[in-house]
Amino acid sequence: MFDRLLEKVGKNKVIVVVAALAILDVLVYIHLLARNPNITTYFLDVGQGDSALVRLEGTVDVLIDGGPPNNRVVRALGDVLPFIDRYIDVVLITHVQSDHIGGLVEVLRRYNVGVVLWNGVGAETAVFQELYRIIQERDIPFIVVGVGDTLCYRSSCFIVLAPSEMLKSASDINNTSVVVLLKNQDISFLFTGDISTRVERLLREQYYLSVDVLKVAHHGSRYSSSEAFLSAIRPKVAVISVGRNSYGHPTSETLKRLANVGAQVLRTDMHGTVRIVLDKQTLHISKGR
Fold it and tell me: Which of 13, 60, 154, 162 could form a disulfide with 56 if both were Cys (CB 3.0 to 4.6 A apart)?
């Protein structure tokens, strides 16, 4: 199998190094056959929750959140991954609410996982306690990330923009979300968890962000995706991970603000799993339905 080595470099850098150790191993053989220079991001249709799978140049899988505990993330992964591929290199938990981690319990039972990254802010909930138990039982490295940490493979880097140490103690757990920017040369994806306009304002003040693809925060809640934030980052594509719900997500206010900045809006409740392929700095979008 592949040996995944996660190591800290300096104070704020996290680098994943992937090396083939057993040429005859069948999983290695499958990986070599599937090697692809493109980067493919799947915004998975998991219902009312968040989950996205990023395949970095066809060989390294990063799963961001796992949706609610309804087994839809497992089915969605089965649709997009080769049937023999039972390894996910990195699982990144933005925050520990059930609609983001509930599906990960079954993912960790069915897949081998190299490392789980999170913000270090736990919860006294049954779903988090069960997830933590499985992580410990399977001896998966469980690493806290913070502002400035980076996760790199070949020409792609995930850069952690939030939460700061101050935000990790926020009374609203949504504002503890890990926010990551995926950069590949001139193209960028921004994954925002469930942050509110408070964190959006801090991001505007601390970073100059120009974003090609935005994972819209908090399923299109009116308390996120402010006019000021969207005007600053100017996303070309905005993906809303959402399902049937009683919250009114996505709200008409959020949809209007996205339209006002010219973003192409895609919704998992309407379009199914959204697939975006980055090929030679060009985005190719396809929808599940």
Answer: 60
